Amino acid sequence: MAALSALSFWSRRQGIFWLMALPIAGLAAAVAYVLETRREFVEWQHHWGWEFLFALLYAMFLDRWIKEALLENALPCDEVDEMRRSTIAVRFLTFAASLCLLAIMVAPCPYIELNAVACAAAASVFVMLLPALAAHRPMTLNEAFHLGRPVQAHLFLLIGGAILVSLLTGLGLSLVAMFLPAKPWVPAMVAGLHRLVDCLLLAGVGYGLAVIFRSLTDWHQPEPADRPFRGMRLRTRKA
Q: pLDDT digit string (tens) for 175-187?
């Protein structure tokens, strides 16, 4: 049901998703094409700087998507608009970029599966810091750890599943590329599609983190100042 909810939310946010995902995929395809066609840049093909750049882009994507999920069905008001327009926090950028870079770096290592498990386990310990920062409710690493302890297994499966699908996607695209003609557009297509799939996975992870954060805390969406009983939540009576 959680996967269906994430998919439903993604289908309702097509505009903002493609507005953020297409530049990332397009940049990856352009970089791969230039590195493939310009031999003077051959030494830059596997430079660590590219992974760092895309880790930063992934972090900015994740921040925006978590905010959109937190503000789902929020009533229009200045506070909601301000939260949507707010820039990414430095702590969010640093922490999320570190997690994304760690996940990306496991691919070329031996024993990929073990590295992916270790990365997911490490990320799930403090990952609740991300939705807290996106919601403008900063917390320490210790607070994030204690907040996520009751759902540690769910966080591990959420992050580990996304990493596993990303690795399998990269492997599958590499195998498909072997059957295509040796043209410069093939590496560009593979790079662009892989980044696009990563954005889809990040959207699922971001939505899941937002839902878990809202269920574990008393955080509520900003509401208009003139609304009576602000912050009050009505629950349906069970039969």
A: 998 888 888 889 9
- For residues 96 and 58, the answer to whether their CB atoms sit within 8 Å is yes
In a domain, 239, yes or no: no
Encoded amino acid at 227, one letter: R
C-alpha distance from residue 224 to each of 69, 77, 80, 136, 139 (Å): 19, 5, 9, 18, 26
Tell which phi-psi region holds residue 93, choosing left (phi > 0), alpha (psi between -120 and 50) or beta: alpha
Given a contact cutoff of 8 angstroms between Cβ atoms, the answer to whether 80 and 221 are in contact is yes
pLDDT 10s digits, 93-145:
888 888 777 776 655 555 566 677 777 888 888 899 999 999 988 889 899 99
Query: Exposed/middle/buried for 74, CB within 10 Å: 0-12, 13-18, 19+?
Result: middle
CA 145/CA 167 separation, integer angstroms: 27
Instruction: Answer yes or no: is 174 within a domain.
Output: yes
Rounded Cα–Cα distance for residues 97 and 100 (Å): 5
Rounded distance between C-alpha atoms, residue 163 and residue 180, angstroms: 26
Quote the number of domains for the chain: 1
